[in-house]
Each structure stands twice: as C-alpha cells, then as structure tokens.
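Aim 2, interim progress: modelling of the citrulline-bound target.
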Amino acid sequence: MIVAITRPTGSELADCELTHIDRAPIDVARACEQHEAYVDVLRSIGVEVVELERLPQHPDAVFVEDTALVLNEVAVVLRPGAASRRGESASVARALATYRNVVQLEAPATLDGGDIIVFGRKILVGQTSRTNPAGIGALANVVEPLGYAVETVPVHGVLHLKSAATVVDDATLIYNKGQVDLGFLGARLLEAHPDEPQGANVVRIGEVLLADASAPRTLELLNEHTEHLRPVHVDEFAKAEGAISCKCIIFPA
Ligand code: CIR
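Predicted structure of the complex, ligand included:
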C-alpha cells in the first residue's frame, strides 16, 4: 500500500513565505478546491491518504514535503530552513511513527524536503537558502550507513531542488536547464519546456505520474514516457512558491 500524508490549508496561505517571486493574491477557496481535487486524484489511484489537521498558525503547512524524508528504512523528520515553518514537523513526526522509525534532525541543521531527490541509492540535496551544510551533514549521518550516497547539487534561481528537477522513472529525471546541472548523474534527462518551468515538478507514484496541468507542452513530452499521466491543477499554490510534490509525503507502508 502507498501512503500519502497531506494537510489542508485555509486563509493562512495568503501569509506564506516567498523567496523568488512577488506576492500575488491567492484565491483561497480555489486553493482549497485544488487541494481536494489533488487528494481525490491520489485516492483514485489507490493511495491511502492520511490528512493531518490544518495548522492555521503556519501559513505554509500545506507543503508537508518540506518536513520529512521517508525512506524504506527510516523516516527523517527535517528542520525547515524558514523559522516560521519549524512548528509544522511535530504532527508529521507523530503520523510517521506509525510507519517507520523516526529520526529527527536537530539545530543547527536546516533542511527542506523540497531540496531532496531520492534517485535509486543516491540522495541529491540542493544547496539553497533553506538547506545548510549542517543539514546535509546530519542527513548523511543518518542515511549513509543505510547504503545511500548523498550528493550536494547547486541550485540557481528557484526555491528548492525539486522546483528544478524531479524523478520520472528509475532511469529518468525532468529538469529545468539553467536551474540545475544533473549531467553528473548519467541519467536520462528530459528538459521541461523553457516557458513552463513549473513542469519540472512531477510526482511519481508507481506507474502513475502526477504532472502540472498548467504546463501543456511539458505534458506532451511526459506523455511520450508514460501511459499513466495525471495532470493536476496547483496554480494557486504556485503563487505560494509551491508545486505538486510539495503537497504530499509519499511512501510505501
Ligand atoms: C515556502 O517558502 O516554504 C513555501 N511558501 C513554499 C514551499 C514549497 N515547498 C516545496 O517546494 N517543497
């Protein structure tokens, strides 16, 4: 069984953190509809959705991805780089304890889940304003004894590594040229359409690929690589600098 941890949002989303984009009005009702539709898509493909309680005092709490990394062997509860987000992790840790041994990163480590790509036994960690060397070192201390290799990756002009690249299948990633250089991986690399940088953020769930409905040319490209493409709408969350992957923590139970 595949589990997805998600969290609903509300009017607090208007006070989200922003780093690389200007504040634009968020239609909160539409954001909530998009969230419900997202959860419906997850359920429709057989995912067991665990919806956490809303945290009205934490504007970015809907972006649960940033609070934890779940591997088959362990769940690592992260310490987000934005101080306003640190109160989000406790409820995620409680939920994860049902499924995994939980290890917690401690200060001075900072590390956002949006900066982590797991690609086979490689764990790529983006060097961004949210993730510091102590965070990368602390993660390595947990995962390298389990047989993972941590590699740091420079990221340019976007919030997180996963704003710039995500995994499509065991051999393939999709990425935005200019934001990240993944040539060292030796993997197959698909380039999101240059006018659709949001298209580089997808969520792979088994054979299914959730992809951004607002990136039609990138969807066409992805369509050549999977028969199971599910476009989802997250444009209200894009105004909060979030994307598809940010809204869930996915793992096999
Ligand atoms: C933040 O700045 O933390 C939120 N407004 C957006 C977080 C997006 N999360 C992600 O890309 N994993």
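The mean pLDDT is 98. The pocket of citrulline is lined by residues 16-17, 19, 60, 63, 65-66, 82, 85, 113-114, 159-160, 162-163, 240-243, 246 (CB under 6 Å).
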